[in-house]
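Try this one yourself first.
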């Protein structure tokens, strides 16, 4: 029979009490039958229970203070299908910024297409950032200072145009405040019009894409039906190896960006600029091009509407973009 703990020497009791908080939280109470160590009326049991629960609260507080930068994809993540941020999500993001947490919009869109959401979130007021072109360009939004930028190698353009024409797709890029695109019936192309709607940028249709665009450019995008576009992706990746990166951000969008560019690498540059560690980064995403940053972040959060590969890479799966998924995760882990 185990003797009551109050009969132990004081240094043994002190050691016992010092060990329990280190166990992590009050689950130790359930894991170890501490009642058998105490007389029913002994206040020491209550003291140990209190210390364990206090440690659990402190652990949660440390976790809530851990994240200093929140990176958020736009489409399928920050905005609903109506292209607006839900009131609850907006409120959560405003509250974390008021606490000093930096917010960064991290998207494949150009800065022009991100700007309306950056203004809605008041990134300028709170010193937030815009990471555009899948990590190819980083801008501090209050000063509009370009922290980092990388352009696509012009030498890959002939190959991209040949692939587009051969397979009957459309190719596009962003020039200033508009989209330049080449392809069969480009103006009527649903995928071209979709990116035009997302970015609120008009489309300029051209007959010779390579001749009409203005260099430098940060990325090109080939758009088309998902299955044949996936086959083109498999063909292009080895052909572009060492020259550019090719990946799908959506089943119908094949993006071509400078070599070494992806959201995770862009965020690594931003973390270094802010002198933060990756463990202090929380990231939200839903698409194929979000997998890297979800894996890279200290806490990677996938939306419930995310591609399965994104969910598998995530530390936590929240509700969908239509059901305040960002707000729910921020309220759980940060606020």
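Now uncover the answer:
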């Amino acid at each position: 029979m185990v003797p009551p703990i109050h009969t132990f020497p004081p240094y043994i009791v002190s050691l016992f009490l010092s060990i329990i908080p280190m166990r992590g939280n009050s689950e130790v109470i359930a894991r170890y039958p501490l009642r058998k160590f105490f007389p029913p009326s002994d206040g020491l049991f209550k003291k140990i229970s209190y210390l364990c629960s206090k440690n659990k609260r402190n652990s949660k507080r440390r976790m809530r203070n851990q994240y200093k930068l929140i990176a958020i994809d736009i489409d399928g993540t920050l905005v609903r299908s109506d292209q607006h941020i839900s009131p609850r999500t907006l409120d959560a993001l405003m509250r974390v910024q008021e606490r000093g947490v930096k917010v960064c919009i991290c998207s494949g869109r150009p800065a022009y297409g991100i700007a309306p959401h950056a203004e809605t979130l008041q990134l300028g007021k709170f010193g937030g950032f815009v990471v555009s072109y899948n990590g190819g360009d980083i801008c501090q939004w209050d000063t509009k200072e370009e922290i980092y930028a990388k352009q696509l190698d012009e030498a890959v353009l002939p190959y991209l145009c040949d692939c587009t024409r051969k397979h009957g797709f459309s190719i596009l890029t962003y020039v200033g405040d508009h989209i330049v695109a080449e392809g069969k019936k480009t103006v009527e192309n649903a995928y071209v019009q979709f990116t035009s709607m997302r970015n609120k940028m008009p489309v300029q249709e051209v007959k010779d894409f390579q001749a009409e665009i203005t260099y430098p450019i940060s990325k090109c995008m080939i758009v088309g039906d998902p299955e044949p576009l996936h086959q083109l992706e498999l063909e292009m990746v080895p052909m572009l190896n060492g020259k550019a990166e090719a990946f799908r951000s959506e089943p119908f969008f094949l993006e071509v960006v400078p070599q070494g560019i992806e959201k995770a690498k862009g965020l690594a540059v931003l973390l270094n600029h802010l002198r933060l560690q990756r463990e202090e980064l929380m990231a939200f995403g839903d698409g194929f091009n979000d997998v890297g940053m979800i894996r890279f972040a200290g806490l990677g959060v996938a939306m419930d509407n995310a591609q399965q590969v994104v969910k598998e890479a995530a530390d936590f799966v929240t509700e969908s973009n239509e059901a305040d998924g960002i707000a729910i995760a921020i309220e759980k882990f940060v606020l």
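Discussion: Confidence is low (pLDDT under 50) at residues 13-41, 48-62. The radius of gyration is 26 Å.
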